[in-house]
Amino acid sequence: MNMNFDNFTNVTSSQERDLEMSRVFPSLMRKVYVWMAMALAITGVVAYGAGNSPALIQLLYLGRGPIILACLVELAIIWYLTSRIQKLSLVAATTWFIIFAVINGLTLGWIFAAFSSAAIAKTFFVTAGTFGTMALIGSYTKKDLTKMGGILFMALIGLIIAGLVNIFLKSVMFDYIVSGIGVIVFTGLTAWDAQKIKRNLLMAPDTGEGAQKVALLGSLSLYLDFINLFLYLLRFFGNRR
Asked: Which residues form a coiled coil (predicted)?
């Protein structure tokens, strides 16, 4: 009888959790995109300020050392967030996300020094349209995109290697080819991440802080997809000054 009662209690708790999740799920999904938009806004403001400051241009972009250091810090923050998210409070995780957005803004400030405002704005709107379309597809398609995600991840590794190789080759044509592949990869990853976020939220152990931290990690993934898609598209739409 005790076993039956325990089973009944577990089933009831699971049903209550599912009911509560169905209620709060739309709010959690909104938070994913609100956090992403917040991070993009912070990055954009910081990048604009850095790219229009002669002192910061001199300090950050005329030598490779500061940018390499900033990129290493960014990688460290991503690793720390993804590996320690369950042990961090939501406030701490959000703070690290904001710090990451600020540092990324510093690494991207060169864009405002190298490209016209019109080219940046045009690329941003093209990126936003492409991103929004793929995020909707990923969120609402009934097709499982898991296999596609594995293929895209392998393509991403190849993309990174190709980019490193072209640092030494300095081939304009090869850069365009890599950029075209990059657009395809991050367009696909946007849909895949959107579906993965939806799935992870539905599987979250609770509807409180734990689920919100899942949403925060999801917003970080989509933020990175947007930034990378923007950078690759900028190679095609951007007119250097």
From this structure: none
Closest CA to 100 of 82, 79, 73: 73
Residue 174 CA: distances (Å) to CA of 64, 123, 157, 163? 22, 21, 17, 9
Does residue 3 lie within any of the structural domains?
Answer: no
Domain residue limits at 61: 25-237
Could you say which residues of the chain have pLDDT below 50? 1, 3, 5, 8-11
Q: What is the pLDDT of residue 233?
A: 95
pTM of the full structure: 0.88
129: in domain: yes
Q: Crossing angle, helix 209-237 and helix 90-108, to 10 degrees?
A: 10
Mean pLDDT for the chain overall: 87
- CA angle 150/154/158 to nearest 5° reads 165
Report how far residue 234's alpha carbon sits from residue 179's, in angstroms, rounded to the nearest whole number: 9
CB atoms within 10 A of CB 240: 8
Residue 13 located in a structural domain: no
Give the pLDDT score at 8.
Answer: 42
Closest CA to 225 of 189, 179, 182, 184: 189
What is the tally of structural domains in the chain? 1
